[in-house]
């Protein structure tokens, strides 16, 4: 069975070009074309294509809101954004709206084919430049909002925590790190206060949860 595709773009020449290229693929067919967001939503819900290739800047209703509406009403339909915008605002809003993929219009057609096949296997697809935007945003939010063992504890405190979690005694840790027992005890107390636990057992659970050590080691 061929992959049914709905093309949504307000530029006729873009739609025609995509249609010609897609219909050369033996496993794909263009179910319909739409030139604005409202028409895209209407056709998507009526025809239930496998994939909507969605422009962002369209009249009537933009591609982000059209995507949000389609995904909310028809979970089986996947949306690939095909846009000239690599700006983080467009990328992130489109992904938040429920798009499964995001490609830039200067991508080669072969990449769109790869994206379609990837998304049909229920995997997301992002152009390399778009991936870079998403990763940078994730790292920005991670450093700003999310507390992890790497943001809460110093490198030395992490060393002490890992060795404690691995069952080493205070004296053994002092020998391994070549510092005094008193210093180890101070680090242990600081770690407990920072992560909000009150026993070695809880510290061990925390270290495992944060990936510093594992039960298999």
What does this structure look like?
There is one protein chain. This protein has 217 residues and is α/β, with parallel strands linked by helices. The chain folds into two domains: 3-142, Response regulator (Rossmann fold); 149-209, Arc Repressor Mutant, subunit A, CATH 1.10.10. The chain has helices at residues 12-22, 37-47, 63-73, 88-97, 109-120, 128-145, 149-152, 155-165, 170-177, 181-195, 200-209, and strands at 3-8, 28-34, 51-54, 78-83, 101-104, 125-126. It has a six-stranded parallel β-sheet with strand order 2-1-3-4-5-6, sandwiched between helices.
Write the layout of secondary structure elements.
Layout: E1 3-8, H1 12-22, E2 28-34, H2 37-47, E3 51-54, H3 63-73, E4 78-83, H4 88-97, E5 101-104, H5 109-120, E6 125-126, H6 128-145, H7 149-152, H8 155-165, H9 170-177, H10 181-195, H11 200-209
Parallel strand pairs: 1-2, 1-3, 3-4, 4-5, 5-6
């Amino acid at each position: 069975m061929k992959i049914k595709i709905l093309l949504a773009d307000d530029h006729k020449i873009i739609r025609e070009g995509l249609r010609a290229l897609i219909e050369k693929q033996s496993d794909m067919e263009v179910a319909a074309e739409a030139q604005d967001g409202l028409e895209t939503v209407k056709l998507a819900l009526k025809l239930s294509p496998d994939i909507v290739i969605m422009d962002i800047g369209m009249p009537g209703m933009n591609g982000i809101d059209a995507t949000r509406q389609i995904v909310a009403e028809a979970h089986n339909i996947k949306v690939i954004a095909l846009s000239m915008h690599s700006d983080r605002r467009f990328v992130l809003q489109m992904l938040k709206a429920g798009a499964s993929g995001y490609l830039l219009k200067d991508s080669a057609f072969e990449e769109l084919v790869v994206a379609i096949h990837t998304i049909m296997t229920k995997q997301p697809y992002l152009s390399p430049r778009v991936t870079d935007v998403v990763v940078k945003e994730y790292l920005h939010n991670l450093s700003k909002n999310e507390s992890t063992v790497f943001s809460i504890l110093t490198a030395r405190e992490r060393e002490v925590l890992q060795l404690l979690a691995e069952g080493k005694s205070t004296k053994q840790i002092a020998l391994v790190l070549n510092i005094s027992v008193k210093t180890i005890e101070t680090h242990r107390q600081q770690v407990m206060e920072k992560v909000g636990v009150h026993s070695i057992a809880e510290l061990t659970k925390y270290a495992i949860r944060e990936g510093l050590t594992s039960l298999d080691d």
